[in-house]
Amino acid sequence: MRHTLLAVRVGASLGVIAAVTFIYEQLLPVNPTTIALTYLVVILLIATGWGIAEATTASVVAMLCFNFFFLPPVRTFTIADPQNWVALVAFLLTAIVASQLSGRARRRNVEALARQRDLERLYALTRSLLLLERGASIPGEIARRIADAFELASVGVYDQRTDTAAWAGAQEPPEADLKLQEVARRATTLREPSGLMVLAIQLGGAPIGSLAIPDTGLSDTVVQSIANLAAIGLERARAAETTARAEAARASSELRGTVLDALAHEFKTPLTAMKAASSDLLAAAPAATRDHELVAIIDEELDRLGALVSDAVQMLRIDAGDFTVHLGRHRLASVIATARKKFEHQLEGHTLVERVPEELTVDADRDLLGLALRQLLDNALKYSPPTSSIEIAAAGNGQVEIAVRNSGSTIPEREQTRIFERFYRGAQGRQIPGTGLGLSIVQRIAQAHGGTLSVASTAESGTVFTLSLPRGGKP
Prior knowledge:
By secondary structure, the protein is α+β, with helices and mostly antiparallel strands. It is built from 13 helices and twelve strands. A hairpin with a 4-residue loop joins strand 3 and strand 4 (196-203). The longest helix is centred in the first third of the chain and has 49 residues, at 82-130. The radius of gyration is 37 Å and the shape is elongated.
């Protein structure tokens, strides 16, 4: 179709050149300069209206007609006066250069209009997806609205979470659902000989589905933008379902767990997207440059923020009593090393001393014990002078005792019996950021393991929190 249209335009361009030649050669005799200028104007109009290929062809034919009909000796392709050779070459070069410049300007204008049209369609699709109604078949609605916005014959959307695929348009290609599932599983892009393009829908670098659209000349940027909007539509549907579950469970014991899931999801979705973007920037930034250093800081802090969100949600679950202890035998030094790693960028001059036997094991839930240790370390860092030392010591006899000592200001004896209460902040605590939940959570973890948490604080030895866990006991 495209080649046919080009052939028609080239033919029309040659017809215009022939008409100008006939008028000046048979009806309206004028000097060669006027004829050359007329040819030039016609070529510029062709370049502006149609394109470079048509204008270049017209330039060559106009030069031949100018030579054959208007430069002496006429009706031959020879030129008597050498000066006319200069004029002929100058005319040809001027015509071709002018047509190229005009054609490029037209092409840029066409591309700008195409980009504007694509942006308008993407904006319309964004608005349409934001207005998706609850209860609708989300993959089917997303497919239909993409097809409507970009006037596509068929569009398919696959939601990996629900394992459902839906199509919008005139017809569904054969075995299309299997291709959608395969692309979503492998997070790849597939181009079919039939002209169908299937690409993964990703959120935060992880595939959540796939999209199938006809390869109709849309730019890769536009196609990727459509996939991103489809990802947002699927994610909004998931968030809406989470909200609906929370409303349905409002009067039941499942309400708090559902709210916590929604809270974790709302925090982690943008964090995952930002982490993916920072990883791409880190890979693209040249090493040993300031940009690489700054992106590395962002990447590390996003990891830290993600860990803080996970810890916060887990703490809320523990505070609500919505957790289960999964006992396992673990090497205590490894658990402490993992917890310590979270604070590598927060020591800020503190000296961290470990006195933990390598062979010492503990019977505990590794995740819960790690959370308890992180809370104790965080508490020690908050209440210690910047250059002081923090000590982690452990010993095991009938039970495993883990002691975290800091040399900061002491806890008054009258407050030592209350610091494990939820939301309690002592006189010093009011000066330091915190929620008052940390020590309460650690105590709940200790009790869930059948253990205890105690504190000793004196001006000579500093403040020591001791977490005692039974060996081989049941939670």
